[in-house]
Specification:
single chain, 105 residues, Multidrug-efflux Transporter Regulator, Chain: A, Domain 2, two-stranded antiparallel sheet
Length: 105
């Protein structure tokens, strides 16, 4: 599937680049996310990046994903607030006195 020597994958684990789950019998279980990570590692090393560099790249990618998730949550909250500003508690507050004065003008 990955066409990598098992010792290479164990080395990635030893270096902390990969953390597969394990069974009670200590057999490694690789998730789809683990497989994708090994593919990324392999791609970067084939491009000439050493494993220390790969570690930095992977950490930066994880940080970017986390930031993107927080940004999407903030955008969704802003969209909810903008779609109904009177009920959000964060948007425009309705002032009945000024609304009434404006209506009388």
């Amino acid at each position: 599937m990955l066409e990598l020597h098992p010792q290479t994958i164990r080395n990635y684990e030893r270096l902390g680049l990969l953390k597969p789950s394990r069974t009670d019998g200590n057999v490694r279980l690789y998730s789809q996310k683990d497989v994708q990570k090994v593919k990324k590692i392999n791609t970067y090393t084939n491009m000439g990046v050493n494993l220390a560099g790969v570690e930095i790249i992977l950490k930066l990618l994880e940080q970017m994903e986390e930031m993107e998730k927080h940004m999407n949550q903030a955008m969704n909250e802003m969209e909810r607030n903008m779609s109904n500003p009177y009920q959000s508690g964060h948007g425009i507050e309705r002032n009945s006195d000024s609304d009434q004065r404006r209506d009388n003008i």
